[in-house]
Design a protein that fits this description.
heteroheptamer, A alpha/beta, B alpha/beta, C alpha+beta, D alpha/beta, E alpha/beta, F alpha/beta, G alpha/beta, A: alpha/beta, Pyruvate-ferredoxin Oxidoreductase, domain 3, 6 helices, 41% helix, globular, C: alpha+beta, Alpha-Beta Plaits, 25% helix
Chain lengths: 180, 277, 80, 284, 411, 186, 387
């Protein structure tokens, strides 16, 4: 499974992809995580890719994706054409306006107000990525929930584990509602 | 006449390049702003001006100015600038650089150019760390400062860049911080007008790099810190010897302004003497 | 320190030796000996340098300035 | 009759004496003073590492001084020495090199080492010229002097290297000449005995490649001039820039106590090792 | 405070920039004194530079290249140029690139250790397509090695010393006369292709004195870079007009060019995230040389009438002299020898070597190193002939007798 | 016709310049000439060697293979190169600086007081010019006129006279030695 | 070299687990496993992460990390440290690697064991700072002046960054020479799983120590032993041409000749002991087409070979783990039955030139520059085009 997280620097894009990769490794799978960002530290374009597989991974920077998580308009516009037909698109609906013309066929689209919920529920916009993570994983079952929890608590700054895990569970909840 | 009416931005900036890559509240933009206004004030002929820089966030500045620019290798900006100035002495040469570029890898070129006294204006944005590569320790990081390569606190004493420039022989040296933009602008203006090597050190916030790791998260925290921890030269000089010793603040202001023979002028004399018709 | 050395050596007796094959005839010893103990000789060594020669050893107070100034380790002062 | 043996021959690689410095060159005097200083404070040369770069004065330790020696690339001895000192703080690490090496091509390493206050003793032999390559202008060559690369006249002012090192933050800085051998020797002893970065600029002579261009043809001429032009730092303090023009300020320019780099570095390491151990014990 | 007054400089005779004409050329010849001179290779390089129009030199003392800087420090002020001794070799290349961008032909000279230090900025010159000439008077390495001894150990470094993919031109003179001639060529090629050109001399030729005849103005071509043909506001510094060689705008003439060592688009502005821009740029940097190889490459063929049993020798630089001598002896003894002397080391004359390989059974490659051009010959010959290296290090030339013996099978 | 000359000395004795002047004179004689040198890193006192090849043909290999003439002003130089002189060749040494022992057979041998002569003229620095004078009169490898002119153009203006004297003194020294030798052989 | 107590403690606490980490980080951990005592570096993308992690972790293992004023100084400092007996390392990328060239030559000339990590990025010059490339392959071989030989290894995964950096230290000590780990921005900046073994699985060889100072730079040995500073042996180390005792002799031709030939041949004659390749031959041996690759490019290349075989095509595959000295015997052997060899690499054909010298088959470069590695499909299509 090839997943791309894309957005601005500062949205926790790279760390999200890292957490997914790490969870996969904890599950005993093979995983590669890769990132790209511009010269600026904050506010620039940024993306994080994860490839999860049961066997050896040969493709280092794939061209097409199974899953795209788009957190900004430019990220959506740049990368949604690269989704494989039938792929999954998850986006922050307050930050992205979709355009049918750009999208490949038969994709599954999910839009949530991750940033908004993060701010309203937890007082911190930064945990939007955790909401997305929980949401995405529930939809796709990319990694086990236990591994995801472990990876999150080991990857976020000390003292914020609880909040991040709660945000992730919020995402799971949202997914549950959405799927229902 | 028409150009004059324009905003400073329209007049000097390369429109395709702006907005910049700089992070929110980064001090480099302020420095550019001050520099452009200083240039405007002295009515510098922009066609006859070359902006030179090395590698680092502040070295990206020449790319934003609609003028000749040379973005060089890490630490070497002053050497390229030396070549330009000597080959075409009628050009105004302005070097934008950062603390790591100028005094870290390029420290030797810095002191030698100051000694040589070549007519150029060196504007150094000192943000206490290597911002572009991800907040590593720089030669100006304060003692105890946290950087990605000093995770346990810096144990190296930092450079006082201005003192070093004076020690190396620079005839014009000024130090300001971006919280004093008018003074910064005036210092740059004086520097451009100075015949000789002019060095202007500007302490500027790097909220994403140094700030974030040292409890100066917001640009404004950083600026307030500079305000609190600096003291004007004239005020400092009024202190008693004892107070001076006890004072751990950064002394800012025009720190040196002397006249001494300038390299290209001296070379010009030498050529006139030995030229063979 | 200079004074103490001078004092220490003033007391003992001394012997000045010049190592011929080390000398490069720079004449620093001749010039800067406070008591002008040395003189230039007309003897060339194999490298073509004129050697210094001690004219009046009794004059020497053993201050060791020549020994220290000699760039060649060619002067040895012995105190006993 | 066997030739007499110099008492300090124990400190030099005797098999390759006489050394190759030109007649009247100051490098020999510096070597002489240095061996005296080492003997004087009873340093064990087995516990010393001498580091040098490229140039005539770099030959003082390499090959002549008998200790572990690192003869490095041009301008980089301080950087090499940093590696040695950091891993073996128990050894006395001395850098002896010339003005072109230390302050010309290697100027950056000099100011950074001074800033770090790493426990090195740097003895810079300043003969105001690139001697080994045949007399090119150095950053320390006074303005107006004709050299092979400034045949018409030098248009650059000379570095006052010791002053620069003070500005860079060194904890001990002194300047002497090859005429002032006794205080030089004493200063070297101070430098090697104390902790922290110490720097001595030794004004020295190069009759062959510098002297003959300025009318000082022999070592003696230089020493006379050093004697005349030298002025003690305490006296110089009260004088103006113009009055000091053309004078050589000698003496100790700065001597302050600051935390030493390697000591601090080792503290960090010791703390972290202990923290990790504590972490393990907690788990156990 | 003294304010700046730029007029002093412009009123002065101190005027290093272009242009260049017959009067200027003849003035230089007059300053050099006489038509026939007896000078060192290093001096001949300096003379060649002056005749080619070089008016800026930045350098740092290093044996055995120092003389070039010394001679130019004498002469440049007399012609209104600049000579500056920088704080190191890194700074020297920086300064000549700056000077070249400001409209002056510029040069530096060094030897192995300095050449190693220069590598980063040589890459910068290649990337920014800045014309400049770098003289490497090779000495025995690695590291400090034998400072006063000649060698040919930096041949591969000249091509591969800086990181990343790039092409440049390197020339090897084998006489003092050629030191002068090839320096003029180096400047011409550098201006023509907007590229750093390396002159690979060595400690032996650099320090050897020989007869040199100064050329007449009509005997030589002096090339100046391609200047902008489009209006200032339409000008882009890295546009490919089909020739793959960009026009060069000079600082201070109002073109507002931005030059960077980062990957850039045609406008000169950074394009560090664009794969196509990088590919286009770097491919063009390489192709502008590869596609013009036939115009750039020079060799000298001294071939027998061919046929079976002939031995080929490929040589370059000072080693060619030993080979010339050996070839004379061998022919006197009735042996067939084909000698290919390489003048352009980079780009490597693969076609010419291949042609030689087709004529002979084996090719001997004598060099003053442990087999560097040998590798290139082997690659170019593609198995058509046996390639025999002849190594020599330690600062001495190949003795002709050694080559003779090897050809006769007794070496 | 090719003549290979080798000068050996300590650095500072001026043999490189001697080689240059000799080469220039050869060029003025309308011959080809190549001059090379080698020396250690020290400016003074190290081993120094200067070689000149003079020929009326192209000179490919620029190094001396078998010297026609060796001029030695230092003991180590003499010891190293004395045996490499061609049979029938010439050896010229400074009598105070070189102890020649038994010179190799079959070569003309001259031991002359070059340094002392220069000292007598008032400056050691002209030793090399004294040497050139003698080399000219002993070997005749270049013409006296052109050599004298080359000396003149290579020395500072204010020392011109001194050098001219040194050259003629050297020339005389050599000429007398040749005469003496011829007499001795008879 | 035996691991000291602090490193044993560190490894026993960190070892025996699987981690998910960057290639750069794996390289840093590998260095600690290899007993690296000293690291000196200077910030540069994409190698900064090595320095950052070492700054964080090396002190915990009792080692020392310093950031020098430039790359020249970093290279100098690790050589200085090596002569005190330390295992030392630096890490950089293209521009810094260019600056280090002079002191790398010094390391070769003085036979100083040390490790240089070059995380290659797109050049020339500053190029694309954050983008991977393999453009420094020939620079690693020829970057410093004068005749020399070099050892360089190229990892193709984060795990190999961890493993090969340890091998680099071993090779450096065995052959007493600087060894280069030629990573690329791709393997440096991907995160993958890395197994860090238990302490008991870590093996080190000791540096050879000479008995007499006279033999430190030669004597009878092809690879002489060292004597470290502070032993009272008066070791003399110089980058100038020197005798076996270390004493400088810069004018005697045979001294230089013997020294350089020995330094050259200690690697050349041990080629077979140093060189490592990985081959994956077509199961039924019928291949006429081969693929040779290394570093990050070898991953998509291998993927493409598998894909082609799955389509019934016969293709052989060889991966160079040791880049220098070149695996000439292995490559010649590999090429015997092949008509054509494809060489995917992230440059304009640097390794292809080297391969061309030793094979009779046609060598075709599959170049890729501009910061995006080959895709499996791209190489697959090239393979299908020639099979």
């Amino acid at each position: 499974m090839i997943i791309r997280f894309a957005g601005f620097g500062g949205q926790g894009i790279v760390v999200s992809s890292y957490i997914v990769g790490k969870s996969a490794v904890l599950d005993g799978k093979k995983a590669i995580q890769n990132q790209a960002y511009g010269s600026e530290s904050r506010g620039g374009e940024c993306r994080g890719d994860v490839i999860i597989a049961d066997e050896e991974i040969y493709e280092l920077e794939p061209t097409y994706y199974d899953v795209l998580i788009a957190m900004t308009q430019p990220a959506y516009e740049a990368f949604v054409p690269l989704l494989k037909p039938g792929g999954t698109l998850i986006l922050d609906k307050d930050l992205v306006v979709t355009d049918k013309k750009l999208e490949p066929k038969r994709i599954k689209k999910y839009a949530i107000s991750a940033t908004d919920i993060a701010f309203k529920t937890f007082g911190r916009k930064i945990v939007a990525n955790m909401i997305i993570l929980g949401y995405m994983n529930t939809l796709l079952g990319a990694v086990s929930e236990g591994a995801l929890e472990k990876a999150i608590s080991e990857s976020v700054p000390r003292g914020t584990e609880k909040m991040n895990l709660e945000a992730m569970r919020e995402g799971i909840k949202l997914a549950g509602e959405g799927v229902k | 006449m028409f150009r004059k009416a324009k905003h400073i931005r329209e007049k000097y900036l390369e429109e395709n390049m702006w907005p910049s890559i700089f992070c929110q509240a980064c001090g480099i933009g302020t420095v550019l702003n001050c520099a452009l206004r200083a240039i405007d004030k002295v009515k510098l002929d922009i066609d006859q001006t070359v902006f030179v820089s090395g590698i680092g966030c502040s070295s990206r500045l020449p790319g934003y100015i609609d003028a000749d620019g040379l973005h060089t290798t890490h630490g070497r900006a002053i050497t390229f600038a030396t070549g330009i100035k000597l080959a075409k002495p009628e050009l105004n040469v302005i070097v934008f650089t950062g603390d790591g570029d100028l005094a870290g890898i390029g420290g030797n070129h810095f002191i030698h150019a100051a000694r040589r006294n070549i007519d150029m204006t060196v504007i150094c944005v000192n943000n206490y760390n290597y911002g572009m590569t991800g907040a590593q320790l720089s030669p100006t990081t304060p003692l105890g400062g946290i950087a990605t390569t000093s995770p346990y606190g810096n144990i190296e004493s930092p450079f006082d860049l201005s003192a070093l420039a004076i020690g190396a022989g620079a005839p014009y040296v000024a130090k300001w911080t971006t919280i004093y933009p008018h003074e910064t602008m005036t210092a740059i203006k004086d520097g451009i007008e100075k015949k000789g090597f002019a060095f202007i050190e500007i302490l500027a916030p790097c909220p994403e790099g140094y700030g974030r790791r040292n409890k100066l998260n917001q640009g404004k925290d950083n600026l307030l810190w500079f305000k609190k921890n600096s003291i004007g030269k004239s005020r400092y000089e009024k202190l008693s010897e004892e107070e001076k010793r006890a004072c751990d603040k950064i002394v800012i202001g025009k720190l040196n302004d002397i006249d001494k023979p300038e390299f290209t002028a001296e070379w010009s004399k030498l050529v006139d003497k030995h030229f063979v018709e | 320190m200079y004074a103490s050395l001078l004092e220490r050596h003033r007391r003992g007796c001394k012997l000045i030796e010049i190592t011929e094959n080390l000398c490069k005839g720079c004449e620093i010893c001749i010039e800067f000996c406070p008591l002008k103990v040395f003189e230039k000789s007309d003897k060339l060594n194999r490298k073509g340098y004129y050697l210094p020669v001690v004219t009046d050893e009794d004059q020497c107070v053993g201050c060791r300035l020549c020994e220290l100034l000699c760039p060649e380790f060619a002067i040895i002062i012995t105190n006993e | 009759m066997s030739e007499p043996r110099h008492r300090l021959m124990d400190f030099v690689r005797e098999e390759i004496m006489p050394h190759r410095f030109c007649s009247g060159c100051g490098c020999g005097t510096v070597l002489n003073a240095f061996t005296n200083a080492v003997e004087g404070i009873g340093l064990d040369s087995a516990k010393m590492v001498c580091v040098s770069g490229i140039g005539c004065s770099s030959w003082i330790p390499s090959p002549y001084f008998k200790s572990d020696t690192l003869h490095t690339t041009h301008g980089r001895p301080i950087a090499f020495a940093t590696g040695v000192k950091v891993m073996r703080p128990d050894l006395t690490v001395v850098v002896i090199a010339g003005d072109g090496d230390v302050a010309g091509i290697g100027g950056n390493h000099l100011i950074h080492a001074a800033r770090r206050n790493i426990d090195l003793s740097v003895f810079m032999v300043n003969n105001m010229i690139y001697g080994m390559t045949g007399g090119q202008v150095a950053p320390t060559t006074p303005a107006g002097v004709k050299t092979t690369t400034t045949p018409h006249r030098n248009v650059e002012p000379a570095f006052k290297v010791a002053d620069l090192v003070v500005a860079a933050g060194a904890s001990y800085v002194a300047r002497w000449t090859t005429y002032h051998v006794f205080p030089l020797l004493e200063s070297m002893q101070n430098a090697m005995s104390r902790k922290g970065f110490s720097f001595i600029e030794i004004m020295s002579q190069c009759p062959e490649n510098y002297g003959r261009r300025i009318g000082l043809r022999t070592g003696i001429d230089f020493l006379r001039q050093f004697k005349e032009k030298a002025i003690r730092v305490d006296k110089a303090r009260g004088m103006t820039e113009e009055e000091l023009e053309d004078r050589i300020v000698i003496g100790k320019l700065c001597d302050v106590e600051r935390p030493e780099y390697v000591t601090e570095l080792q503290k960090v390491t010791a703390e972290q090792v202990d923290l990790l151990r504590a972490e393990k014990e907690k788990v156990d | 405070m003294k304010k700046r007054d730029v007029s002093t400089a412009t009123d002065s005779k101190y005027r290093p920039a272009r242009p260049f004409n017959r009067e200027e050329f003849d003035r230089i010849r007059r300053i050099l004194g006489g038509k026939v001179l007896f000078v060192q290779g290093d001096s001949a390089v300096s003379y060649g530079a002056l005749l080619a129009g070089c008016r800026f030199f930045a350098g740092y003392p290093i044996t055995p290249a120092t003389e070039t800087g010394e001679v130019l420090s004498q002469l440049l002020p007399r012609v209104g140029g600049v000579c500056i001794q920088m704080e190191d070799e890194i700074a020297s290349v920086g300064a000549i690139i700056g000077a070249s961008r400001a409209g002056t032909k510029a040069m530096t000279a060094t030897s192995g250790p300095g050449f190693s230090l220069m590598q980063e900025n040589i890459g910068y010159a290649a990337m920014t397509e800045t014309p400049c000439v770098i003289v490497d008077v090779q000495r025995s390495g690695p590291s400090t090695g034998q400072p006063t001894e000649g060698a040919q150990g930096d041949i591969m470094q000249a091509k591969w010393g800086s990181h990343g993919d790039y092409e440049l031109i390197a020339l090897s003179p084998s006489t003092v006369q050629e030191c002068l001639d090839l320096t003029i060529d180096a400047f011409n090629l550098s201006e023509k292709y907007s590229i750093p050109v390396i002159l690979l001399t060595d400690g032996i030729i650099g320090h050897m004195r020989e007869k040199v005849v100064l050329p007449e103005f009509d005997d030589v071509e002096i090339v100046w870079r391609k200047e902008p043909t489009r209006p200032k506001d339409e000008f882009q510094p890295f546009t490919d007009d089909g020739s793959q060689i960009p026009e060069v705008a000079i600082f201070g003439e109002g073109y507002h060019t931005y030059i960077t060592g980062l990957t850039h688009s045609e406008s000169g502005y950074p394009a560090t995230d664009s794969q196509p821009d990088h590919h286009r740029l770097v491919k063009r940097l390489c192709d502008k040389i590869r596609n013009n190889r036939d115009k750039i490459i020079r060799v000298q063929r001294d071939y027998s009438d061919g046929g079976a049993g002939a031995t080929g020798i490929v040589s370059y630089g000072v080693t060619s002299r030993s080979v010339n001598s050996a070839v004379k002896t061998l022919r006197q003894e009735g042996l067939k020898v084909d000698h290919l002397r390489i003048i352009t080391n980079w780009p490597f004359p693969e076609k010419e070597v291949d042609e030689l390989a087709g004529r002979v059974d084996r090719i001997i490659v004598p060099e003053l190193n442990l087999g560097q051009v040998y590798h290139c010959v082997k690659e170019a010959a593609a198995g058509k002939a046996e390639i025999v290296p002849l190594w020599k290090t330690g600062g001495e030339m190949h003795v002709p007798r050694g080559i003779v013996e090897l050809v006769k099978g007794r070496g | 016709m090719k003549t290979e000359m080798r000068f050996v000395a300590f650095g500072g004795q001026g043999i490189v310049l001697a080689g240059v002047i000799l080469g220039e004179a050869a060029i003025a004689d309308s011959n080809n000439a190549v001059q090379t040198q080698s020396y250690g890193p020290e400016s003074r006192g190290g081993a120094a060697k200067s070689e000149v090849i003079i020929s009326n043909d192209d000179i490919d290999y620029p190094m001396v293979v078998e010297a026609d003439c060796l001029v030695a002003l230092s003991q180590p130089g003499y010891d190293k190169y004395a045996a490499e002189v061609k049979p029938g060749g010439t050896l010229i040494v400074d009598q105070d600086l070189v102890d020649a022992g038994t010179p190799p057979e079959g070569r003309a041998f001259y031991s002359l007081p070059f340094a002392k002569t220069a000292d007598r003229l008032g400056n050691r620095i002209v030793t090399n010019i004294v040497v050139l004078g003698s080399v000219c009169s002993i070997t005749g490898v270049v013409s006296e006129n052109n050599l004298a002119a080359a000396v003149e153009s290579n020395v500072p203006e204010k020392f011109r006279e001194l050098n001219q004297t040194a050259f003629s003194e050297g020339f005389k020294l050599g000429a007398e030695a040749v005469k003496l030798k011829a007499a001795g052989e008879k | 070299m035996a691991l000291d107590e602090n490193k044993r403690q560190y490894i026993s606490q960190r070892g025996g687990k699987t981690y998910f980490m960057l290639g750069d980080e794996a390289c840093a951990y590998g260095a600690i496993y290899a007993g690296c005592d000293f690291f000196a570096g200077y910030p540069i993308t994409p190698a900064s992460e090595v320095a950052e992690l070492i700054a964080e972790e090396l002190p915990k293992a009792g080692g020392i990390c310093i950031q020098m004023e430039d790359e020249l100084a970093s290279m100098a400092a690790i050589i200085g440290a090596a002569w005190t007996g330390a295992r030392s390392m630096t890490a950089t990328s293209g521009p810094g690697f260019s600056l280090m060239q002079e002191n790398i030559g010094y390391g070769i000339m003085t036979e100083t064991p040390c490790v240089i990590v070059n995380v290659q990025r797109s050049g020339p010059s500053t190029g694309q700072a954050t983008k991977p490339a393999q453009g420094d392959v020939l620079q690693a071989r020829w970057g410093t002046h004068g005749d020399h030989n070099i050892i360089a290894l190229a990892p193709n995964s984060a795990q190999e960054c961890f493993d090969l950096v340890q091998e680099c230290f071993e090779l450096a000590d065995t052959y007493r020479t600087p060894v280069i780990l030629l990573m690329d921005g791709e393997v440096g900046h991907i995160r993958e799983s890395v197994v860090m073994p238990e302490l008991s699985a870590v093996k080190h060889t000791s540096r050879k120590i000479a008995e007499r100072t006279e033999d430190v730079f030669g004597g009878q040995e092809l690879i002489p032993g060292m004597i470290h500073y502070g032993e009272g042996m008066n070791v003399h180390v110089t980058g100038s041409t020197h005798l076996a005792s270390g004493m400088r002799d810069v004018t005697t031709p045979h001294v230089h000749d013997e020294l350089i030939k020995r330094i050259y041949s200690k690697i050349d004659s041990n080629r077979e002991n140093i060189v490592r390749v990985e081959t994956d031959l077509n199961p039924d041996g019928k291949a006429r087409v081969g693929v040779i690759s290394y570093g990050a490019s070898a991953r998509p290349a291998r993927g493409a070979v598998k894909l082609a075989r799955a389509k019934g095509k016969n293709v052989d595959f060889l991966r160079l783990i040791t880049i220098w000295p070149f695996a000439k015997k292995q490559v010649a052997e590999f090429s015997k039955e092949l008509d054509i060899i494809l060489v995917p690499e992230m440059n304009l054909g640097q390794m292809s030139r080297e391969i061309e010298r030793f094979v009779d088959s046609d060598v075709v470069t599959v170049p890729r520059i501009g910061g995006v590695p080959h895709s499996v499909d791209e190489i697959y299509r090239v393979i299908m085009g020639v099979v």
